[in-house]
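Is this the right way to post structure tokens for a design question? Let me know if I should format differently. Anyway, here goes:
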């Protein structure tokens, strides 16, 4: 399914993504690359168009215009699920099933070893809730359960919408460490994040989205140069560029 590729070539290229809801332009000709093996952050306030962008990229929402390339070849919407795993925010799947039952189902479905499942349960501190129903979990525990699901999935590009929402400081640090380990194992991650401090800690490059337009992209040093402030944090950069 995947071919050898230089790490300098894009894994994914998105060209001129536009989406309008009735008369509201949610996205306007957004183009960007995702590099192999990176953690790319999609940054912007609520309403910036982050979730719409991800759903169009994943092929779940029809765009007005879009071209998605995978390793240089056009990737139609029907094939994106083969190479992309998308975890939405705010979902409660299999609400009447226990956490352990839910995760074991996908461990088997994805052909993962039992050891991998148990390791994720340990790393995400889920051992105490394996018998609790998915629909009865707190927001943070549900988030960690769904992160375990995403890390069982085999697709090379992992797309997470608000992966830190509902987590406390200690849990956020633990998940950041786990995502970095996942990156080191060869996966590429696209994270939609509205918490700027978390984004700055975990992402290699950033896409800054405001009112449906891409206003900046690159590393923190790239964005500091564009904002004209060599010492700026991400919040100052975002305010300067928007």
């Amino acid at each position: 399914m995947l071919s050898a590729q230089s790490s300098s070539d894009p894994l994914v290229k998105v060209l001129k993504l536009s989406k309008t809801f009735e008369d509201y332009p949610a996205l306007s000709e957004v183009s960007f690359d995702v590099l192999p093996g990176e953690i790319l952050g999609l940054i912007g306030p609520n309403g910036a168009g982050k979730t719409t962008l991800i759903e169009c990229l994943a092929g779940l929402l029809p765009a007005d215009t879009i071209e998605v390339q995978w390793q240089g070849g056009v990737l139609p919407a029907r094939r994106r699920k083969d190479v992309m795993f998308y975890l939405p925010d705010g979902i409660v799947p299999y609400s009447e099933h226990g956490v352990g039952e839910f995760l074991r189902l996908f461990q088997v479905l994805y052909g993962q070893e039992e050891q991998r499942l148990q390791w994720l349960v340990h790393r995400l501190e889920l051992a105490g809730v394996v018998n609790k129903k998915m629909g009865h979990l707190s927001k943070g525990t549900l988030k960690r359960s769904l992160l375990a699901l995403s890390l069982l999935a085999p697709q090379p590009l992992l797309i997470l919408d608000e992966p830190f929402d509902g987590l406390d400081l200690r849990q956020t640090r633990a998940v950041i460490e786990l995502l970095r380990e996942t990156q080191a194992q060869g996966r590429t991650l696209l994270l939609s994040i509205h918490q700027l401090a978390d984004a700055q800690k975990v992402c290699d490059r950033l896409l800054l989205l405001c009112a449906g337009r891409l206003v900046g992209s690159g590393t923190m040093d790239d964005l500091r140069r564009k904002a004209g402030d060599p010492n700026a944090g991400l919040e100052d950069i975002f305010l300067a560029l928007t």
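Format looks fine. Someone answered above. Worth noting: The CA atoms of residues 80 and 164 lie 25 Å apart. Helices lie at 50-58, 99-109, 114-123, 139-152, 169-184, 196-202, 220-227, 234-241.
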